[in-house]
Amino acid sequence: DSDSMRDLVAATTDRFGTLDIAVNNAGILRGTGPAADIAQEDWDAVLRTNVTGVWLAMKHQIAHMRDNGGGAIVNVSSNLGAHQRIPGAAAYITSKAAVAALTRATALDHIADGVRINAVSPGAAAGPMSLKPGETEAGRAERVKNENPLGRVAEAEEVAAAVLYLASPAAGSVVGADLVVDSGSSA
């Protein structure tokens, strides 16, 4: 909610003096199955968390950054959405495509304010969200050998490296980009 995001920015600036870099990594997966069968409360929860949550965070981050010399924001989207789709995940896919579009729109709106905004769109990465129900890490490793060109899921450190790059001065001319880190799944 807006008050929580405002308070988070205030707590950050109280502790550190300023907010120069923000990473918005919000994502839940609910309401899987055919789109017509998704319960509205699941749809609403996914969009509220994955899209509205990112927008509210950026709203308060940008307000601080534009008044304090600029900054960099990196939103975590997904390769599912703007880059790739699968059956049975319409709410999640829609929400993450919206994050990619929101990133590009706000990047254009606020680059003149000195705020660079970009996104990272990971695919399956090492962690519980990429495991199918009842699947082990070994089972996932076997499954993805044939599911993506690299033959493995991304490591968290690989996704983090993309975020760090976009937040760094080395990406000073990168605005509105959506860097896909998905082992070639959407290539």
Overview of the molecule:
It contains five helices and four strands. Helix 3 links the parallel strand 2 and strand 3 (115-122). The chain has a four-stranded parallel β-sheet with strand order 1-2-3-4, sandwiched between helices. It is α/β, with parallel strands linked by helices.
**Assembly state (oligomeric):** single chain
CATH topology: Rossmann fold
What are the secondary-structure elements, in order, as H or E? HEHEHEHHE
Average pLDDT rating: 95
Which class do the helix and strand fractions yield? alpha/beta
Beta percentage is 5-15%
Largest sheet: 4 strands, parallel
Give start-end ranges of low-pLDDT stretches: none
Which strand order does the major sheet show? 1-2-3-4
Q: DSSP helix count?
A: 5
Helical residue percent band: 40-55%
CATH superfamily: NAD(P)-binding Rossmann-like Domain
C-alpha-based Rg, rounded: 17 Å
CATH classification, class level: Alpha Beta
Task: Give the CATH architecture.
Answer: 3-Layer(aba) Sandwich
Q: What number of structural domains do the residues give? A: 1
Number of DSSP E strands: 4
Distance between the termini: 36 Å
Shape: globular
